[in-house]
Amino acid sequence: MTTKIVKFISLLVSLSIIFTTARSTVLINPLLQKLADKILNKTEEANELIDEFNALLNFSLPDPWNIETIKPTLTFYQIGNKNFEVLYDFDPKKTVAHLNSIGFLHVQQLILITHGFHNNFDTDWLHDYKDVILNITASQKIPQTVAILGWGGGADILVFRYRQAAANVLTVGQWLAKFVIEIKKVQSNLRVYGIGHSLGAHVMGVAGRISKNFDRITGLDPAGPCFEKVENSETLRPSDAKFVDVIHTDGYDSRLDPSEWFFPVNHYGSLIPIGSVDFYPNYGYHQPGAGTFTVAGSHLRSLDLFLWSMTNRNRFVTDLILTKVPDFDDPVTENKPSSYRAEMGFFSDRWPIPPRNESNTLFYLKTNKNEPWSLINKGYYQDEYLQYFVASSKNVKRSPIINRGYYIRSKAIDFGWCKTIQSDHHNVVLSLGSGYDTSSFHHLDCFFIEFDYADVCRRKSEIIRQQNLYEEIDSKQQAQIEEIYFKSSRYLLIGIDLRETQRIEEILQSSSIKELLEAFLVRASTKTSINFILFNECSLCYLKQIDSDRLLSKLIEILPRLFEDRYLISIHYLGYEMYRSLRCRNDFDRFMLKHFSSIGAPIETFLDDKQIYDRFKSLGFNQIELINMKRFWRDSIQNDVLERKRIESIEPFDEWEELDCVCSVYNLTVCAKFKPSSLQVLKDSENTEALSNDLKMTKLQKLLTSISAIEMPIFGHSSHFVSEKNSIRIFGGFGSQPKEDGDEDRRHRNHHRIENIIELRLNDSFDEIITVNVWQPKDQHHRISRLHCQTIPIDECHYFLSGGRTSPRSSSSNVIIKIDPNSQSFQLQNHSFSSIELSNYRHICSLINDRKIIQFGGAIPSQQSIRLYDIESDRMVRIESPPHLNLDRHSSAFTTHSSHSLLLNGGLDSSGHFLESSSLELLDFRDSMTLKCFRIENFDHRLYSHRMRMINENEVLIVGGINSRITSNTIYRIDLRQMKLLDQFQLALSGLNCRDKLLMFHNFALETNGASKFCTIGGGGNCFSFGTHFNPIVFFQI
């Protein structure tokens, strides 16, 4: 008896560790401690518990509970529809009729998800799965409904009652089957797909077996104890659905031997194959990173892998299988190549099922200990192969704008692959200037031929051999073609200059290449079509257009001739490269071109939208789609709520203008060319209409300007024009302060957060800077050192410095600046404005009614409410917002219209979406605050990071900013009486000192002397990897 007591106490402790770890609770549940105390005291209840323990050792099951005891629920979710919960006592026939009437069943697919032991409806992963699936539904426009089956009443019970939970699988599966039967009666074409984890996998199996109506069931590490090696168990079976895929992650644990250790079982899954296709990541047990003793870690890993597969298609493709069939306590630790391929995870059913013969359907693949993210391990994008080709990537710290840019590039190329790879074709990819591209390692169902310079191919081939990334065909055979640096059954690496068109033609038509392609084609003999994909990732733009056109023409000519006698041929082009976008009307593209020329890699082919369209039309492509990265970023990624939140959580980011600029000059081109027998001509698509509209954009008047001989390299600052002194004072920002006469300090050459006040003295004509004075703080504790702040004058010697930031997640508090014009110094006066003061940046702050300052909005959503600071009473109060005023805004343009009114326009919300800018909002503070909106005739632009100033009492000027369609240096003159756009101007620099000067009007300051003369100070930003740009000081007159 004593031995059994000790073993049972050990069982309780181990189960507590396992299951409380999975649910993020304490190490040992107090209830289990109480039970252990009862056993140690030899109470009568101890005998009952020990009997339960013995039954568990023998894996015998009690009678299942009835449905009234378990009380399962089935909750339906659908985009655009209110959730609907089905309770355990609902009549299946009537319930299904109602579900059908409210639209839940008018879809292509119903996905049912359920949990396992010690979980319930509120378990987090169920809702994570639901959210991701619905997000896929929205982005891919595939009508789907998701339903979560919660049966916590029969599963979320005490840990030593596992046998009872296992028995309850039958009851829950029977209950679910009744509803599935009725669903298929009213929607016979509806595809039913069940996903279950642990015991939940067997629930789906029972429901599929009884209803005979499941199209697919996915078992995520189906529970092993009480199911494997047990006769008549309700285990999941291959016949329970048309397709059953199973992921095994916790089928065995050699570290916990049940014959010698205290634990009755050493795993919670099973190694025994029970699906149409079974996947054994890391051989199905001992998942890397799952912990030394945490059995549940490996058991839960299947959930992580499947969730990740939903948004990372083709990442779990494998052509390796186990060498034999594993058994209950006999894992297999060797694999071998297969003539078939399969993909583990959400897209598993997109692949043909191999014939069931020994281990033919038991696929092996290796995974990392966590999501194998790249890009400095930040988590933007997964590519485990980059570590081999960019050895220093873990040690290089890149700015957030570069990380975001490469992330968008990767997402766009993945999007392009989805549009060009044809699942019902043989896919042959010709990568032109491949560099260290890793696409071939991810798209295992394609044949890749990569071309690049010999030195690049030599290094890449060495890495492939060192890391054993491909199984190389006898290198002696490569001697036939000296340019081949690596050769495998589905991969060729060819070192050659892309301008050598004739030699490329000879290589592709050689017998050795044809034999290799023939071997690839016969693997899937049922396919009757070949899809050639010409892939260009920022390579052909370095060639002269005549050379790249000659290459493309030659490939289009010779590729169909290789196999057109036996196969239908189609050709796709997938290109990602820089281009002269009609959406870019500032000088960002010139800045980029200047950068590439400076590093000895000039861009030789730089086409605009229309030229690209005409180019591929002349090459004979039937379908041509141009996708600007700004549109892709905002329409695809920004609208993907879950993905956007994931990206925002990775690292602080506040370079919105620069991201829009760099995206506006990159383009994804996707083209298709079909044989005449399968000709498909692209008709008026959304893209061609958008392109046509861009070509018809209004031509702008040229507005001549002059620039100051004195440079003021700065952005992200605020300013104030002091009319009495005819000077402009600058506060905060990033850049370098101008060098004063006699100043030997070299700090003006280094970029940093500006800590001083800079005063620019202007001439009487308001068209040149006379002198520059740098005002010093009283001591180091009084430095300003913040970006995107606002500055309001209180009197001649005091300023209200509102908000700002030192980093995107660290905003600054309001302070009072006391200045001493005589000594040209200042100090910050710490001031307790009250607990409700605004601490934000990129916000709105303006003086109204002469002695009150209003603040609202900003980039930090929690700090966006309206605060009003009364200068006379020195009090700050929170005031109620008028109806329809959107406080969720930042980077808006604003200006005082009169002493009592504030004009607003545009901006972004906290999700990065453009606010409506075709109207002006007028906030009137005379009595109570009111809001009026006026739509501007002929003004359909949405802007942010722009500036606004009054020309006179009837006209307002909007300058620069980032436009939703274009990136612009445009100036708009608007008549407030007619609410009409009067003029649009494009700034044109004039004068000898303007040569090579570039303008990007965002993050700048705008001042006016009140006599129709204006001055812009600074602006620009970190331009991706091309360097940092600062605008000159610009003067113009309206």
TrEMBL record:
One of its GO terms (biological process) is wybutosine biosynthetic process. It is found in: Secreted. GO terms for cellular component: extracellular region. It holds the Pfam family LCM. Residues 96-373 form the Lipase domain. Its main location: secreted. InterPro entries: AB_hydrolase_fold (IPR029058), Gal_Oxase/kelch_b-propeller (IPR011043), Kelch-typ_b-propeller (IPR015915), Lipase (IPR013818), Ppm1/Ppm2/Tcmp (IPR007213), SAM-dependent_MTases_sf (IPR029063), TAG_lipase (IPR000734). Keywords: Methyltransferase, S-adenosyl-L-methionine, Secreted, Transferase, tRNA processing. GO terms for molecular function: lipase activity; tRNA methyltransferase activity. Its EC number is 2.1.1.290, 2.3.1.231. Pathway: tRNA modification; wybutosine-tRNA(Phe) biosynthesis. It catalyses: 7-[(3S)-(3-amino-3-methoxycarbonyl)propyl]wyosine(37) in tRNA(Phe) + S-adenosyl-L-methionine + CO2 = wybutosine(37) in tRNA(Phe) + S-adenosyl-L-homocysteine + 2 H(+); 7-[(3S)-3-amino-3-carboxypropyl]wyosine(37) in tRNA(Phe) + S-adenosyl-L-methionine = 7-[(3S)-(3-amino-3-methoxycarbonyl)propyl]wyosine(37) in tRNA(Phe) + S-adenosyl-L-homocysteine. It is an enzyme of class 2 (transferase). PANTHER family: TRNA WYBUTOSINE-SYNTHESIZING PROTEIN 4. Belongs to the methyltransferase superfamily. LCMT family. Belongs to the AB hydrolase superfamily. Lipase family. This is tRNA wybutosine-synthesizing protein 4. It comes from Sarcoptes scabiei.
